[in-house]
Specification:
The protein is an all-alpha fold. The protein is built from 16 helices and no strands.
Length: about 260
């Protein structure tokens, strides 16, 4: 590791509680995810960083000082890739949702790790920038349940406490919102559990050469990385669509959940 020895930050339960409460009120507030992650980080990322820096791909990335956001924000290049590639599908997803890797960096800047070496920042930035790629690779949407499932998938990949906390409390919160449609908590919890299992069984994505994957066929990548379709999530979303006018985007924030 370059630079001085990294001292993990202390856990801040009050800050974490406020961020979680704000996030449950507005699930699209990415800044609260970053604040919660920062408040609960502690030593939770140290083991993952050590695993990364000792891997062949990770060591190469650190040596080259490679930043994943550089290629993700190069929209002109991504647009030249075939439609079936991860890079082109990522570009389409970001355009549809009006997102950017730069935008994610801006909203999470307040929660950046302090006093960390350049190598640690490269790793933490990389895991942050993987979030929207997780959406594309796993096929979870940006509705509230899709976001919860992506974090449930990400938890065994990155071992950040905040992801487990959000997945658990988020699942409970949205289960309550779905009761009026006669959709029980079992459906939501089942989708979240499946997401966790898929994340645990998949290849360790922080240690993959994402830059090389950008040009590869998405379906072939999903097979190689052992990422199956999110069947329980898709069934739940299909049921919601059958019972409401909701079609895409935030389910509750758009107030489209209940007909009339």
């Amino acid at each position: 590791m370059s630079g001085t020895t990294y001292k993990p930050p202390r856990i801040k339960p009050i800050v974490a509680f406020r961020a979680l409460n704000n996030l449950l009120r507005n699930p699209q507030d990415t800044r609260q995810v970053a604040l919660l992650t920062s408040a609960l980080r502690g030593r939770s990322g140290v083991k993952q960083y050590n695993k990364f820096k000792t891997s062949l791909v990770g060591a190469k990335i650190l040596t080259e000082k490679r930043r994943l956001a550089d290629i993700l924000d190069n929209h002109a290049y991504l647009a030249t890739l075939p439609e079936n590639t991860l890079g082109h599908r990522y570009l389409a997803f970001m355009a549809e949702e009006n997102l950017s890797a730069k935008g994610l960096k801006e909203v999470t800047a307040e929660a950046d790790i302090q006093n960390a070496s350049e190598d640690i920042r490269i790793f933490t930035d990389r895991t942050r920038d993987l979030h929207d790629l997780y959406h594309v690779l796993t096929d979870y949407g940006r509705d509230e349940i899709g976001e919860i499932c992506v974090l449930a998938f990400s938890y065994p990949q990155q071992r950040l406490r905040s992801y487990a906390v959000i997945a658990f409390f988020g699942a409970l919160e949205f289960s309550r919102g779905l009761r009026q449609l006669n959709i029980g908590a079992t459906s939501v919890l089942s989708a979240v559990r499946q997401a966790y299992k898929h994340g645990k069984a998949a290849n360790w994505l922080p240690g993959e050469d994402i830059e090389a994957m950008i040009t590869q066929d998405l379906e072939i990548l999903r097979h190689r990385l052992n990422i199956p379709p999110p069947g329980k999530y898709q069934a739940l979303i299909s049921e919601i669509r059958q019972k409401t006018p909701w079609r895409t985007g935030p389910i509750f924030a758009s107030r489209q959940l209940i007909p009339g």
